[in-house]
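Hi F.,

I've been meaning to write this up properly since the lab meeting, where we talked about keeping a consistent format for the predictions we share between groups. The idea is simple: the sequence comes first, exactly as it goes in, then the structure tokens exactly as they come out, then a line or two of notes. No screenshots and no reformatting. I'm using this chain as the first example so we have something concrete to point to.
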Amino acid sequence: MKQKRTGNSFKNEKQRYILYALFLIYPFIINQLLFYVNGYRLRFFKTLPVMNDEVSWWSQINALLTTGKPLGYYGYNGTHAPVGTIGAWGIAPLIPYVIFGMVFGWHMFSMTYANILFLSIAGFIFCLLARPDRKQLKWIYGLYACSFITIGFSMTAMSEGLRYAVGIILAGIILYVRDHAPALKEIKIRHIIIYLVILAFLFYAVNLYMIFALAALPIVWFMLKGLPAWARILISFVFTLAYALISYKTTAMYIAPYTVSTIGSLITIAKTQGIYMGLCALFAGMFRNLQSAGIYELVHCDISIVQWFMIIYDVILIWSVIIFIKSIHYKIKMRSEIVFEEVISGNCFLAIFLIAGFLLGYCALYTGQYWTLCRGINTGFLMALLLIAMGDWKEGAEPRNFTFTRLFVVFMTVLGIGTIWTYFAGNTEERNTSIETTASILEEKEVLSGVFDISPENTEWDNTIAHYGEIDNYYMALPDGAGINSLSDEVLNENARYVIYRTREWDEKKEVWEEMLKDSGHELIHEDDLFLVYIKK
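Output, unedited:
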């Protein structure tokens, strides 16, 4: 007898995969629409790196593609990686962009195209892993459009697009392993191969972003199906801790001291003063960052994009907790057995775990600074949105689905559309460049190629340019392969062969720096409307 198809099922498998494959163009369509309504028509957008970090990301990837590696040191205040010349984020996040550059070429706008491509592929992979029905798929598309931090950062040259893409895939892996993992005694060779691929991807994810170690807990838990709960919990925690520590050790070797400083100081305290003092420092830093983030100070007449995000973030967390508690109460009321496996395996609990885990973990290991915090915890937020879009897992595990939560996200996004729109428009206006700006950068690059001597035959410090002040996109004109060592203080870097200053910032520094550079043996070798260049003789 032919099974009757429900209203949420697909007509056939072909339709399923066609609708899944729409995600391969969906993020691009959203960005194109944003550019169109901002007055840029339907032409391909061209977004230059703007901020310090964006230019540094672009330049290091450019160096890997043109010279094989940065020939000089990337770093801050004269520091550099113990091994290699890569800057503050290590090699893991650079690899996908290098692959993109090898396939499609690398130009000034490539970071944005790569970010959108990564998100597109990740969304498609999530669908293949989670296998949503038509109703769930509609919510996935809808809630992705409401993730305005995700969309906003995909329009920049930051690496957040890659991190969000990896988070989307990890959310799909969690659901896949939960739904398809056999009991340990039933594991076959194909399961082992799949698990090895998953663990390899998870190891890359943790090296990319240490807080992704949170995803190891549910993944390993579901892999250990058949073991007693206490054994699964113990092994999951030990495995996650081991992954995090190994990741720290491997990445710290190839990272210029900057992003690992907080984590490194915690490990140092634990080694020198004991694990108890290390944990005290961890929790003290976490509560300090939670306070500095101001996540409870959300009532203002003029609500910013960050505050809109945090309001939605907090309400989703609170409502998910309510649903979780009601699911337990429902079980008790119905006098049915509370199955621990069902309770913690439901999308409700997983959403709580990701939203709360990323918030607490980020504040413990990184910072509470507004924008940095929001773009970081948005990773967990996006993963949780996908779980919310998928709704309930098993009947009885969650007596209430996520209808309220889904509608709340949509409602708050629409309600804050004015503020959110200003954010998108600012991103577009700031990064969309004219042909004249791009031509000016390329012209300056040609000029500077005859000023600097950057060569594999030189030492790393001889290929390093120390710069002071703010970086803008004109720093993309520096020679391919040159190391850029950023100095935030007023101490001269004695190791770097070159010192560079933007001409517009020179007047206020000239009186002190001319004498300092002269005393240290530096000589002015180039000056134009954009840069002054000194070389150490």
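Notes:
Strands lie at 75-76, 464-468, 483-487, 498-502, 522-527, 531-536.
The chain has 22 helices and six strands.

If this format works for you, I'll send the rest the same way.

G.
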